[in-house]
Each structure stands twice: as structure tokens, then as C-alpha cells.
Amino acid sequence: MVGSGGIMAALARTAAGRSGIADGARPASGPVLAVSASASSTTAAQIADAVAHGWAELAVPAQLLNGQDPSLLEELEKRAAAWLAAGRNVVAHTTRGTQDPRYAATGPLDASYVGELLGTLAGNMAVKGLTRDIAVLGGDTSSHALLAMGVSELRVSSPFVTAAPICRTDGNAAMAGCRLLLKGGQAGPIDVLERFAQPTSPA
Predict the structure, then answer these.
(1) Rounded CA gap, 90 and 122, in Å?
(2) What strands, in cross-sheet order, belong to the sheet with 56-59?
(3) Dihedrals phi, psi of 136, to nearest 5 degrees
(4) Contact 69, 126 (CB under 8 A)
């Protein structure tokens, strides 16, 4: 089937005899890492809400987005690792909307490059055991991020919110069993990240 996330949501809600949907109620097991390459105003508001609720903010510098200084990825990983080890939720982003100076400075970004960059960051944090709960924001880069994380198969555990399912990774991935939230730029309520990080699932 080809269509919007609404098709996935409808199928998940009407599937019979599948225990996997209940797995979506599984709470976050520790600090959450969110990575975003979306420039939408919806995602910008969601990032702002997370930061207002105490999430550590990790802004990917324009030099790294332009591929000018790949060594900056190591510095990003060190900062993310320190925050996650301290038990803080972290949101790493390439921009906070179209008014972000990086948006004008970098120009059109290569989705495969940015996806690989964010996926590598997230995957490394998961493999090191610093997080088992990851949110990927931005539909255009999600597939590239998943490939960089070594994920070849996903199982939808819960519809969560429309067009933003919670999934589990396949058993062969280096980060097997991780809980993933995949969200398009315009999808989800403003507090979607806070909901994902809560010890109980939303009603």
C-alpha cells in the first residue's frame, strides 16, 4: 500500500490477534536521545517544548552539516554521551525551523549525508548502552538514519500518535531491541517527545 501514515495507523488499530501493539506501552528504560533533521515549524515547536522540560540541547554546527569539519562529530558524541550518562534526555538537531541561522548558512542538505550523520550519533550511543530509546524526527532522513544505525527491519509496537509509530529494531541489529519513535516533520503533538520519554504511555 502507498499512502500517508494514516494508512499505517488504521491497519495497526484494526489488526486482530497481534500482541505486539501492547508492547508500545513499554516505558522508556532510561534517558532518551532524539535526533532531528526537520526544518518544519511543528518539529521546531516540539524541540522547544522538550528543551523547556529540561532536555539537553545539542545543536549540530553548520561546519559539520556542510562536511567541512567531520571531526566535530566526535565532539558531539562526547557531549551527548556525558548528558545521557548523567540521566538527561538529549535532543540533537540540524535546525530549529527555517529562522535558525544554520538553515540559511548550509543551504539544501544532502538527506543521505545528514541521515547518516544523525544515525551514526544515535547508533553509537545505543551500542555504548547509554540509551535504548531513540526518536528520529524528519521523514526525509529517517531511512538513511536507520541504515546508519544498522537497522534492516522494524516492527511497529504501537501507533502511539498518528503517523508517528513506536517501533522495535530487529534482533540482528547492533542495537537490537531498541525502542524507536519515527516521526515526520509535520506529525505529532507539541509534547510528543515528552510523551515518549514518560514512564507510562499516553492514553
Answers:
(1) 11
(2) 56-59, 90-93, 32-36, 133-137, 179-183, 164-169, 154-161
(3) -115, 120
(4) no
Residue ranges in the chain modelled with pLDDT below 70 = 1-28, 107-108, 172-173, 199-203
User: What Cα–Cα distance (Å) separates residue 191 from each residue in 45, 47, 48, 142, 162?
Assistant: 9, 9, 9, 20, 14
Q: Is 143 exposed, middle or buried, given 0-12, 13-18 or 19+ CB atoms closer than 10 A?
A: middle
For residues 27, 121, 128, 170, the Cα torsion angle rounded to the nearest 10 degrees is 60
Q: pTM higher than 0.90 for the full model?
A: no
Give yes or no for a contact between 155 and 172, defined as CB atoms under 8 angstroms apart.
Answer: no
pLDDT of residue 23: 43
Distance of alpha carbon 106 from alpha carbon 94, whole angstroms = 10
How would you class 92 by CB atoms within 10 Å of its CB: exposed for 0-12, middle for 13-18, buried for 19 or more? Answer: buried
The three-state (H, E, C) secondary structure of the chain, written as one string: CCCCHHHHHHHHHHCCCCHHHHHHHCCCCCCEEEEECCCCHHHHHHHHHHHHCCCEEEECCHHHHCCCCCCHHHHHHHHHHHHHHCCCCEEEECCCCCCCHHHHHHCCCCHHHHHHHHHHHHHHHHHCCCCCEEEEECHHHHHHHHHHCCCCCEEEEEEEECCEEEEEECCCCCCCCCEEEEECCCCCCCCHHHHHHCCCCCC
